[in-house]
Design brief:
The chain is built from one helix and 24 strands. With about 350 residues, it is mainly beta. Strands 2, 4, 5, 6, 7, 8, 9, 10, 11, 12, 13, 14 and 15 form a 13-stranded antiparallel β-sheet that branches. It is globular and about 55 Å long. The two termini are about 30 Å apart.
Length: about 350
Amino acid sequence: MQTELTQYGKLLDSKGRLSQVGWSPQPLLDCNLENARFYGIRIFQRFRIKRWDYYAIFTPRLFFSATIADLGYAGNIFVYLLDFSSNELHEEGLVIPFSQGISLPPNSDQGVSHFEDKRLRLHFEALPAGRHFQVSWPSFNNGRGISADLLLHQTPQHESMTIVIPIKQRRFYYNRKINCLPAQGIVQYGDLNESLSPETCLGSLDWGRGVWEYKSFWNWASASGFLPDGQTIGLNLGCGFGDCSAATENCLVLNGKVHKLAQVNFGYTSGDFMRPWKFTDSENRLDLDFIPFKERLAKTNLGIIFSEVHQMFGKYSGTVLSDEGRPISINNLIGFAEEHQACW
């Protein structure tokens, strides 16, 4: 069963409990994290609340991503780029003590996410026309440098996958995934200057807010691309991060419309991530093969903070049924699938 939310309201009630649990194609709940009540001594709560904005850009030539994250007791800024033609992947990140200088708005549909110091500047802003995405990191990759100035077009009708789920008794996850946002602007990486056109380039946003268990595990898979006839197609699949009995985040996104899927099985071999993956679902609507071609391994070990991500880039092929029962054929759609373990 999948519970669809239809009522506007607050995320948390006066006692810090989730007011609603389920999914929606648009965000309906005000993320009032100030009402969180999971520690007896409230001053410690801010160190357990996690917030992030993760942007990903797909072009015919490259994948580009930038993140601003506040993990409570530390911030995390990271940028990486994968060149499909050369298979070159480069990533750099910063750990910011106590998240000083990081600004993240409470909700996903308005406000500015920002971090800037003498080394770099990241600025993400929700505008009426879409999302303004700016990155400037001159010293990236030994001075090769990377910068981007993009508009990810977003109409009010463009749907997204928003879920609100509990994690055990007192913790929760409020997440919004937006796929297939037409991207326009420029990305510069050393001597590479790529102009992005909405006809060939798409962006996506993973917006997360919540409180997790200290030891956490999840799988996530995502893609944003085009069908041969020019229609946009996106995938968002996930499991492992909480109680998904009321709703999962699994969906097909076709021309900006969400087609909801139920439970999805990630068929892969942990520890041998380059082997083919298999995705199926509980309603026989999804049958996808995923063939990896590049592994991104990201490890952070700072004592109390530990994270290990195996993010595999590859190609999806197979079939998924729309809500109307229409089969959608997917052939070599570039995306990613990951396994993530964290102590945070």
